[in-house]
C-alpha cells in the first residue's frame, strides 16, 4: 500500500508511464519480476517469527522500485532512471519498539536493481529473491543485514497466488484510474535465522508477501489508508484496506478473503468497514495511531490487537516516510483466528504532497 | 679593623720589578689616614687593591677579619657593596639619575626598596646640605656640590671603610676645605676607617696621620 | 629582591634604552619587521593551509581510502569493482570538474556525486534543495526528542542522505534532476545567481546551462564548490563512464594499510588508493618549499635585527663603561650586570616582538583582503580564509624576537662583564673595546664548512644545509671584517693628507670599530646582493625559458588545462584553415601518476621534433621512432625503439631519472614505455612534467582534444585581427586568446609580485644596515668627544672633524660593502645552485648585474659617509675645551 506514498518521489506526469488497465492478465512467474515501465512498484514481506525459546516477533522487509522519469537520454550508468528503496524492521516486544533500517540507491547493476521476469530486488547485500523451477522448488529468500539486526529467511508458499481486486486489478478509489496491479502470497512458511541485538536466533513462522505496481497518483481527497494482511489459523488469508478522507471517513475500501483451499472472495467497499477501538500516541513524533481496530466484514465483527503499541516506523530521515507498520493478531470474540500485519499511513503526515 | 700586611703589586716601570712592595698598614674604626706620594707610584692602584678591584701579587688585606685577597670576584662585590664607600676625583655621578637616586644607588645595590632607599638618601643629602636639590640632576651642580653628593653616596650605607681618591683634585681650595670637612666628619661620625689618596697637603691635614707611598712600602710623612 | 623588579634594572639598564632613542627605535624597527614578516608569512600559510586542510577534509570526509587517478579520471568500471570488494563497506564515486564559466575569468569546482552514497562518507557535500513553497501544513512537525538509537546508529541509515531526499518539498527528485546544481555558500557568493537561475558552464567549446537548485550547507565558509548528481555530471561534461575519485569506507576488521596494499596490487597503472593523509600531503608538499623559503627570508630580517641589537648594545656598553665600572666598584656583581644587559636586549626583542605581532596580524588581514589566502604561486587559489588568532605561532615569533634581542646583546654583555672596573674607571679607555684580532683561521674554517654543507642533499625537500651554509657564510664574512679592515688599510698605503691618515690610523688601531659598524652593513649587503643576483638570474632565465616555451605568435585555449574547456579536432581544423594562420601547434595537457612519485605529474603532449623544441639542459630532440601501428611499439622491448619522452628537471631529481632511462607512463590504464631523451628546464610545474610527442599520445589514448593551440601567423598579419577572426569562428565566450608577449608580461608580473616580498626584505635590510652605520658613528662620535676635543685643541677645524668621521665611515662601509659583495655573491650562488635547486628543482643561469651592484655599493658608501657626518654633528658642536677638561 505504500505505493501511493512513494508517488511523491516522482515529479513527472503519469502519462509518461505504463497505465494500469483492467483486464490485463497477470502471468507468472514473469509478473513476479519488476515492471520498470510503471512508475512505482514494491515487494513487501511481513510476518510473525517464533524462535527456539518460543519468543515471538514480527518482521517486515520491503523493496520499492521507483521510476524517476529522469535520465532517459543519459548514457551514464549513473543516470537515476530507477531508484530502489528498502525498509526492514523487526518488532520485538522485549525491546518495545521497532528495530528498523532503510537503504536507498539508484539502480546500478550489480550494486542495486530489480530484475524483470522473476522477483529479484537488491541493494548491495540486502535482497529478496524468488527461486522456482527449474532451479528447484518455488520459494523466496530475503537477506537483510543492518547494524542492530539481521534477517536471513526462506519463505515457502503453501497456498497458490492470490490475485486481489478483479483478477489482480485493484481499484483504490471510486475512480477506475486510481488502481494498481496487486497480488499476494499469503501463508508463506518461514524458516531461517535472525539476529537481534547481537543474538543469533533460529526462527520459524508465517509470512505474507504483497507485490503491487502502478503509475497513478493518489487522489487529493485521500489522507491515508489502513491495510491488513492476515494469515488465518485455518490456513486461509484475509487482506483488507480502506482509503481515508481528511475527516477519517472511508473514501474506498476493499478486501480479499482466501479460504484454505486457495479459492478467493473479493470484498466490495460496502463489505469492509474499519472502526478504531483504541489510540496510541507516539512519544517521538506525536502522531496518534488507532492501534486497535474493529473490523466489520459484511457484518462479521472481528478485532485487531497489536503485538505492541509502538510499531511506528519513522523513515523520514531516509526515505521521507512516517507510518505504523506492525504485527497484529486477529480475534473473533476472544478467539485468536489469525496473525498478520497492519499498516497505517497518513496519521503523522499527509500521505501525499 | 683594617690590616694590610706586606702587600706587593706587580707592573712597575721595569719588567719584573714590583710597582710597590712591603706595604703594611693597620687602621682601627674611626681612624683615617692620608696617603701621599709621587705620581705613578701606585697610590690609586693601592686603593684599588684595598677595594678588591685589582689583584695583588703578594700580601694580605684583612677587613674585620676577612682576607680580601682570598675572596672570589662575587664575594668581593658583596663586600664592597656592604662595607666600602668610594669618593673619586671625577665624582662619577651617574648623569641620568637624580641626586637622590645617585645617593640611593648603594642602597639599591643592597636590595633595599626604592622608598626606603630614598628616605635614607634624602637624610644623607640633608647632611651634606643639598636637601632641597634631591630631584635635581648632576649636570646642574658645581664641582663642590657634586663631590658633596658623592660623599653622601659614599656614606649612605654606613660602610666600614671609605676610600677616597684625590677627592678635592677638581676643586678650588675653599670648596675643597668644605668638602673635606664634610667627608671627615662623616667618616668619624660613622666610626668608619678612612683612606685618602692625595697630593694635597690640605686634604692630608684632615686625616689622623699621613703616610707616603714608596716602592718599598709606606713611610710616615714628616709633618 | 626579584631581578626583574630591582630598581637598578629599571633606572640604570632599561632606562638606558630611552636615552638612546634613535638606536632603540631602529633596533625596534628591525625587530618589528622581522617578527612581523615572519609571523605574517606563517599566519597566511597557516590559515590558508588550515582552510585548505578543511577543504580536503570536507572533500575527503570520513573516507578511509581514496582511489584517485590522473586528472582525466578513470573508467567507472573500477567503481563497481571497488564497491564489490570485500574490503570495502561503502564506495562513493565522484567526478570532479573544474568548470569554466563562459565569458568569466573564473572556474567553478563542480563535484558530481552519488547522493545516495556520499552521505556515508562525505556528508558535508550533501546538497539541500531550496524550497520554493512551504511544506504541507498538515505535516506533524514534532521533533525527535528520543530518536530510536537502533535506527540512528545504523550505518545504512546514514547512507541514505538525510535532510536532502527527505526534504518535504514539492519535488523529491529535484536533487537528481540533470540540470540541478547546488552551490556552497562561498560559491553562491562568488557567482551570485538567484535561486532557480541558470548558470552557464563550458564544456569543450560549447555552453551548457545548469540551474541553481539549492545549496551545499555543509561546505563551510571557506570553500567554493558546487555539487550535482554524478549521472548528470557525466552527461553534462561529456565524461560518460569517467570518474576522478572513489572514496572508500572500509569494512570492519581490515586495517587501512592492509586494504591499501590489497587494492593497489590490483588497481591498474595510474590508479592508486591513497589515505586522506597521503592526499593532503600531496597538496601540501607542493607549497612547502615556497613556504619555507619565505620563512627564511623573514628570518633574515630578524637576524638583521639581531645584528642591530648587537651593534647598538655594543656601543651602548662602550659608552657606559665608566658607569659600569662605578657600579662594579660599588659592589655590583658581574652576574647582575650581565643579566641586566641581556635584559636590555630581551626588552628590545619583546617590544619589537609585540609590535611585530600586531603588525603581522594587520598585514595578514590586509593580505587576505587583497590576495586571498595566496602568497603568490597560486597553491591556494579559491580560498577565502578568515583571519584567526594563532596562539602557538604568535608566541613562537614573540619568543624568536626576544631570542634575537638576547643573542644580539650577548657579546656586548659578556664584554661589559669582563671589563676590569679599576681601569675602566679611568677615562679614555673605550678604545679597549675596539680591539679585534684578525681571525683568519676561524674565518677559513667557517667558510670551508659552508662550502662543505652545500654538497649535502636536502632534508625532506627542504635545503636545510643550504640555509645553514648561508648562515655560516654570513658569520664568516663578519669574522673576516677585522682582518679585511687591516688588509684594506695596508693596501690603501700612506694616504695623503691629514684626515685620511687619521682615519686610516684609527681603523687600523681599532678594527673592532669596523666590526661593530660594519657587521650590519656586511649582513645586509650580503643578503641584498645575493637576492639581487638570484632574482636577476631567475628573471633572466625565466624570460629566456618563456621565449623557448612560447614560440608561436598567438595562443588559443578554451579554458585552462585543468578546467572543462577544450578544443576538439574540428575547432583546430577550423582555426588552422583561417587566412593568416600558417601553422598551428596543439598541446594536450594531462596528468599521470608514476609509481615512483606520490603526486601526479603533468604530461604535456605536443609536437616536439617538428617545432622549436624545449629548453633542454641535457639530452637532445629526436623524432619519434614509434611505428605507425601503436600495438607494435608496446611489444618492442628494445629501448631505442621506444618513443621519446623529455622530462623536467624536477622530475629528473625527484624521480631519480636520467637520460636513456625507460619511463613507463600509465596512459589509458595501461603502462606504455618511453625512453628519456632529454631533461628540460621547467619553472611552471614544481611536481614535475613530462613532454611526449602529441602523435604518440594520440596513438595510445585516441584522445584528440587540444588544450592549448599555438598559432603561427603569416608575416605581416595583424594578431588582433586574427584574434577577432578566431573569436568569430569559435564563439566569443568560450575561448581565451593571448599573445606571447602579453603572457610573458603577465608571467613576469606574477614573478615580480612573488618577489615583492623579497624586494621589501632587501630594502629593509639595506636600510637597517645604513641606519646601523649612522647610529654607530653617532655613538662613536659621542664616545670620542674627548679625542675630538684634543684634535680641536691641536688646531683641527670642526669641518675637518666631520670629514674625519665621514672618511672613517666611508672606509668602514667600503670594507663592509666589499666583504658583503663577496659574501653576497657566494650566497647568491648557494641560493641558485643549492637552495632553489633543492627546493624547487629548477636550475637557472647565473646572472650578476654588475652595474646595479656597483651603483648600489657606491651609494651605500656615500650614504654611510653622509650618515656618519650627520650623526657626528652633535659631537662636533660640543665645546671641545669642555670635553677635554671633563676628565683631564
Automatic annotation (TrEMBL), chain A:
It comes from the Bacteria. Gene3D superfamilies: AttH-like domain. Pfam families: CrtC, Lipocalin_9. Residues 40-215 form the AttH domain. This is Carotenoid 1,2-hydratase.
TrEMBL record, chain B:
Residues 2-223 form the ABC transporter domain. The keyword Cell cycle does not apply. It comes from Thiocapsa imhoffii. GO terms for cellular component: plasma membrane. GO terms for molecular function: ATP binding; ATP hydrolysis activity; transmembrane transporter activity. The keyword ATP-binding applies. InterPro entries: AAA+_ATPase (IPR003593), ABC_transporter-like_ATP-bd (IPR003439), ABC_transporter-like_CS (IPR017871), ABC_transpr_LolD-like (IPR015854), MacB-like_ATP-bd (IPR017911), P-loop_NTPase (IPR027417). Keywords: ATP-binding, Nucleotide-binding, Transport. PROSITE patterns: ABC_TRANSPORTER_1, ABC_TRANSPORTER_2. The lineage of its organism: Bacteria, Pseudomonadati, Pseudomonadota, Gammaproteobacteria, Chromatiales. SUPFAM superfamilies: P-loop containing nucleoside triphosphate hydrolases. This is ABC transporter ATP-binding protein. It comes from the Bacteria.
UniProtKB/TrEMBL annotation, chain C:
Keywords: Cell membrane, Membrane, Transmembrane, Transmembrane helix. The keyword Transcription does not apply. It is a multi-pass membrane protein. InterPro entries: ABC3_permease_C, Lipoprotein-release_system, MacB_PCD. One of its GO terms (biological process) is lipoprotein localization to outer membrane. Residues 129-150 have a biased composition (Basic and acidic residues). GO terms for cellular component: plasma membrane protein complex. The keyword Transferase does not apply. Residues 129-170 are annotated as: Disordered. Residues 519-728 form the MacB-like periplasmic core domain. Residues 296-419, 763-878 form the ABC3 transporter permease C-terminal domain. It is found in: Cell membrane. The chain crosses the membrane at residues 294-315, 336-362, 392-413, 442-459, 465-493, 514-538, 759-780, 801-834, 846-868. Belongs to the ABC-4 integral membrane protein family. LolC/E subfamily. This is ABC transporter permease. It comes from Thiocapsa imhoffii. The lineage of its organism: Bacteria, Pseudomonadati, Pseudomonadota, Gammaproteobacteria, Chromatiales.
